[in-house]
What we know:
heterodimer, A: Four Helix Bundle (Hemerythrin (Met), subunit A), 2 domains, B: mainly alpha
Amino acid sequence: xxxxxxxxxxxxxxxxxxxxxxxxxxxxxxxxxxxxxxxxxxxxxxxxxxxxxxxxxxxxxxxxxxxxxxxxxxxxxxxxxxxxxxxxxxxxxxxxxxxxxxxxxxxxxxxxxxxxxxxxxxxxxxxxxxxxxxxxxxxxxxxxxxxxxxxxxxxxxxxxxxxxxxxxxxxxxxxxxxxxxxxxxxxxxxxxxxxxxxxxxxxxxxxxxxxxx
Amino acid sequence: xxxxxxxxxxxxxxxxxxxxxxxxxxxxxxxxxxxxxxxxxxxxxxxxxxxxxxxxxxxxxxxxxxxxxxxxxxxxxxxxxxxxxxxxxxxxxxxxxxxxx
Lengths: 213, 101
């Protein structure tokens, strides 16, 4: 009986908090709702005897990842808010239909299967030592690949977040300061006069007989 | 009421659908990232419920790997959001069309 009550409470909370992620226009509220959602999903993991994953979910996700999210939202301040613009009605309707279609498809696909009762497992199922043993022996390659992925992501985060932005293409270089610019134009004019070829704009203007500006 | 794997999959599908709705309708890249997190977690729930159903550890290992992928996706996504915000001021995924044309 306790199992059913816990399931209903946790899954109801998960669905309500998922709506709380999607609907508010303030990203801070969304992030807080996502923490609630992650915790209720961790409760469902516990019901499925995935003890280690429930702990990892709370520590890694609800702890570390969401803290990073909240830091970024706080850093961006007002810029993080949703741009005020109405979503067109067709987009709203189409996305509701698409999302509902996926849900209905999965529910039909699952309901048409006759799943027997869950497999009998020992009490050890899903505890850290068993998961760790499987992870470091059978699935060692997946573990190593994940660690390399995390390393690459950390380096990428540092590169993307570093203070020195790369130069924009559409911003002109500020290298020729006015004085240097004058020198350059003088040189160009001399070259133009020597070769008879209008190198600079000023020389070209002189060539056309307009004289100096 | 006997809570079988079907109920867990149904909850996972509903949460996934809500996340999908968020990705389709929202404009702020931060809420987009949060919705993607929602979808990844719904997948994790499905993996773990099937792992329990068949009594094997593989689904849990999968879920752990998905957690790692989600964490790195958040790092890169937030880095991009911060870089874009520094450069452009306001954040709107519909306006980020620099690569077009």
